[in-house]
Amino acid sequence: MDLNINEIIEGSFQIIGGNFANAGEASMQMKSKLMEIGVHEAIVRRAAIATFEAEMNVIIYAAAGRLHYYISPDKITIKIDDMGPGIENIELAMQEGYSTAPDWVREMGWGAGMGLPNMKKNSDEFKIDSVVGEGTTIQMIINFS
Amino acid sequence: MRGAAMKLNKIVEDLSLEVKTGKNNLQGNVTGVYISDLLSDVMANSKEGNLWITLQTHLNIVAVAGLKNIAGIIIVGNRQLQEDVLQKAEAEKITVMSTPLPAFEVAGKLYQLLNQ
Amino acid sequence: MTLKEIAEILEAEVIADSDELDVLIKNACSADMMSAVLYYHTPDSLLITGLTQPHVIRTAEIAGIKSIVFVLDKKPGVETIELAKLKKIPILCTRFCMYTASGKLYEAGLPGCLFK
Ligand SMILES: Nc1ncnc2c1ncn2[C@@H]1O[C@H](COP(=O)(O)OP(=O)(O)O)[C@@H](O)[C@H]1O
Ligand SMILES: [Mg+2]
Predict the structure, then answer these.
(1) Integer Cα distance of B62 and B45 in angstroms
(2) How far does the centroid of ligand 1 lie from the alpha carbon of residue A93, in Å?
(3) What pLDDT, on a 0 to 100 scale, did the predictor assign at position A4?
(4) A27-36: per-residue pLDDT in tens?
(5) Which CATH homologous superfamily contains domain C3-107?
(6) Mean pLDDT, chain C, integer
């Protein structure tokens, strides 16, 4: 793929817990950047979906967090870390359908328990670390070819 | 929401639904269909005897179906139900069915079936 | 099926520029659960939903959804409309419920989103 990029491109966004009004804004901007440099649409979509789910989890579960991405000629690395309650049982949280989302979140159309599975499905490498009482870090890599 | 009345077991057969709970309550009539994944929406807008099509698998679907006298819940997209949901549905005599089809297609097939 | 045909079938109010109605829609997804939309998305899809907040537009934009139908006469707020215009995602508002809207479009030959 011929990308319009000769150095590493980075971007960073603050994500504020509970802020549904801007939900998805960080992921959309990352998506625009990838489109702009000419990454294939299907790959952009995978990156955007995975990032959006991670962004939503920060908004739903954490007090605050940060999205950081690095684009190199062959891949994008996406890191989302938050200051939140952390996840006690990661294996359980990864199960499709498992969700502790509160009622008001479910009424907004979230809390299907498919976020983490969606992240895993759409990334080539997926890593999650979480410390109860401190926060959660997710790192995803999506290759461009 | 409207449509001619039809027995639930005919629908189960025609759409090849897998009946998860309430296998003995398939004789009832379906008065219509409501689709939503939002519990408050179903509380507000579904009618007695409606079939409820949803992706929602939260335990509270059983309570909502009971309160609104829903004829049955069709869980779409092959979504798996937790054991506690199935047990509660069985105890409350709520018929829960499952299909790999997405909601749009279940709706489409039912629409043709009920309006023929 | 073009968006124009869809708007006619659903007797919908259109919030979009008129040239956007030529868009070709290949399949549809009826859901309120945004993660399901992200999971089952296929390009050139129509989303039929009961939620009208801005995050629904962002979900559509991220999933590559071409257009959104709001059911049960729900009117989106200004923020939603502005964002949809910015992202060039035409909105249709129909008085039909999700079931009837899905049924009518399926009957007219529109298939559901494929699973992946
Ligand atoms: N950033 C996070 N901080 C704390 N808990 C989280 C976080 N992300 C996910 N979880 C936990 O994992 C569960 C599953 O997450 P996910 O697959 O995204 O589904 P959903 O958000 O729909 O519940 C959540 O319900 C929550 O309990
Ligand atoms: Mg989530």
Answers:
(1) 16
(2) 6
(3) 76
(4) 999 999 999 9
(5) HprK N-terminal domain-like (3.40.1390.20)
(6) 94
Q: How far is CA B110 from CA A33, A79, B15, B94, B113, in A?
A: 43, 44, 8, 20, 5
Range of the domain at A130: 9-143
Q: What is the pTM of this model?
A: 0.96
pLDDT value at residue B1: 45
- Give the tokens for residue C114: 């494929």
A92, A105, A107, best to mutate vs chain B, most B CBs in 10 Å: A107
Pocket around ligand 1 at a 6 A CB cut-off: A 53, 57-58, 60-62, 82, 84-87, 93, 98-101, 110-116, 136; C 35
The string of pLDDT tens digits covering residues A90-131 is 999 999 999 999 999 999 999 999 999 999 999 999 999 999
Q: Return the residue of A nearest to C38 by Cα.
A: A49
* CATH number, position A29: 3.30.565.10
Residue B3 has pLDDT above 90, yes or no: no
The reply to whether A37 falls in a domain is yes
Asked if residue A117 belongs to a domain, the reply is yes
Residues of the domain holding B94: 2-114
**Do the domain assignments include residue A2?**
no
Backbone angles phi, psi at A102, to 5 degrees: -70, 165
